[in-house]
Design a protein that fits this description.
Blueprint (H helix, E strand, L loop, with lengths): L1 H14 L13 E3 L9 E5 L5 E5 L5 E4 L1 H10 L5 E3 L24 H6 L4 E4 L5 H8 L5 E3 L8 H13 L2 H21 L9 E5 L15 H8 L3 E2 L11 H7 L3 E5 H7 L9 H4 L3 E4 L2 H4 L4 H16 L2
Parallel strand pairs: 4-5, 4-6, 6-7, 8-9, 8-10, 10-11
Antiparallel strand pairs: 1-2, 2-3
């Protein structure tokens, strides 16, 4: 019975009677060979270098990552999604999927009750949470967001393969790449000056934060023909003094922050603020590594183009 299966898993979780085999291998996925269930499973090396035996065509998937949830929907694989977190709220129909709670403070009881045959996690899930899930005997694969734009396409293909939607992933990537190519084809590479830009992640008394050179957001700006004034830093901390000194041509900011930002000193002294070259954007377009990054990229490029006329 379903209840007995749930109790059995919960007991195993409580006692921690699980042996986890972790092997580092050089490739990201290989088809299993040499065992009786090779047609039903694949071995997959995830982004934590954990080698996992994954169902070849999972039926019940729980996503503990807003980015992964969004990609699953973009692939049309949402019929397999049986669980998500409170933060997995895009597209809007994701709200109809049962939530297990937060990302690192979810309910293990709710997770087990959903009887997933695959749990997918992203960058925000810590090692302790990984152990909680795997110690309960649940198949878990980590697909992390990464610091380069190309990783978006890599992650889409990985998730498509794991969900049994590999062809759909290839088609989705093709359509996204075509949109990016329209932007890159329109940029004049012979110009000597690249307009400068700064992304406002945080500002004010709490500190100034932006996307440094080791982020996929930096790559998005480069693709748009822009130079990120924070490209020399790693991490997210940036001083207001450095911002004022660099005085970028353009500012990109979350749309909900724009009204306050352009009326707050010392940011009012920035040339981009004075000249109306502050570009508001939906934060999820570039804060998460998701297909909407391409929409964000196109939006930034078109906004810069319209401002430069």
């Amino acid at each position: 019975m379903k209840y007995n299966k749930y109790v059995s898993k919960l007991i195993r979780f409580g006692l921690g009677i699980v042996v986890i085999a972790i092997t580092t291998v050089g490739c990201h996925n290989n088809t299993s060979t040499g065992n009786n269930d090779s047609d039903n499973y694949i071995t997959y090396t995830d982004d934590y270098n954990r080698t996992v035996k994954v169902p070849n065509n999972p039926k019940r998937i729980v996503s503990i990552s807003p980015a992964i949830t969004e990609i699953i929907y973009a692939l049309g694989a949402d019929d397999k999604l049986v669980g998500r977190t409170d933060f997995c709220n895009y597209p809007p129909q994701a709200d109809t999927i049962e939530s297990i709670g937060g990302i690192n403070n979810f309910s293990i009881e709710k997770l087990l009750a959903l009887e997933p045959d695959l749990v997918l996690i992203g960058s925000m899930v810590n090692e302790n949470t990984v152990n909680l899930i795997t110690n309960a005997g649940i198949t878990l694969v980590a697909i992390r967001e990464k610091d380069h734009f190309e990783a978006l396409f890599e992650n889409i293909e990985k998730i498509g393969m794991l969900c049994g939607y590999h062809n759909e992933a290839i088609n989705l990537n093709d359509s996204l790449r075509k949109k990016v190519e329209l932007v890159t084809a329109a940029i004049d590479t012979n110009v000597n000056y690249k307009p400068t830009v700064y992304y406002v992640v945080g500002y004010g008394k709490g500190g100034n934060f932006t996307a440094g050179g080791n982020t996929f957001i930096n790559d998005i700006f480069n693709i748009c023909g822009l130079r990120n004034i924070a490209e020399e830093i790693t991490g997210w901390n940036y001083s207001v003094e450095a911002l004022l000194e660099a005085d970028p041509d353009y500012m990109v900011i979350r749309k909900e922050d724009m009204a306050d930002f352009i009326n707050t000193k010392p940011y009012t002294y920035l040339s981009a603020v004075k000249r109306g070259k502050v570009i508001p954007i939906e934060s999820a377009y570039i804060d998460l590594q998701v297909p909407r990054n391409v929409d964000g990229l196109v939006y930034i490029y078109n906004s810069i183009k319209s401002h430069s006329k």
